[in-house]
Amino acid sequence: MIYSLIALLAAPAAPQTVQCAPGTQHPVLVKVTGLKNRQGQLRVRLFGGSTATYFDKKRTVVRLEIPTPRTGPVMICVAAPRPGVYAVDVRHDTNGNGDTDRADGGGISGNPNVGLMDVIFKRKPDPAITQFRVGGGATTVPVQVKYLQGGSFKPARTID
Predict the structure, then answer these.
(1) What would the pLDDT profile of 97-131 be if each residue is shown by its tens digit?
(2) Which first-to-last residue range defines the signal peptide (predicted)?
């Protein structure tokens, strides 16, 4: 028993794409669209609790990082810890360096319009737009990734 637990803890966590692992209790399927290329990494963060803590990296409920899938639709399974109300964000780290660079893209559940001034002044989007409810079954959440172009964030000419 203890050896099984050690082996489980030592095994790298491999996020599931397209399908959730069998037995996932409260799966959130994040459908990522708008990628400008298939390089780098994707980071998905799930937020719950008070809406004031949404998109605060210190209040992340679940965080996954995966290599950007080279082909096909991008569906990332995130297991919510329990039923409830959540928000999600996605970052496309195009060069895979772990830092947010000007070439990177991002998106938020509900696909709100976010301007450069919102980012500069750390204004968060309206929770009424970004929230979604997780129940007993799978919840699909579309997120369109946008990239900085000029002084605003816009969808890239997509490859998907």
Answers:
(1) 999 899 999 999 999 999 889 988 999 999 999 99
(2) 1-20
Residue with tokens 């637990």: 5
For residue 57, what pLDDT is reported?
93
Domain of 7: which CATH number? Answer: 2.60.40.10
Cβ count within 10 A of residue 142: 15
Per the structure, the complete domain to which residue 139 belongs is given by: 2-155
Residue 112 domain-assigned (yes or no): yes
pTM of the model: 0.84
What is the torsional sign of CA 75, 76, 79, 85? negative
- In this structure, the number of other CB atoms found within 10 A of the CB of residue 116 comes to 12
CB 70 within 8 A of CB 12: no
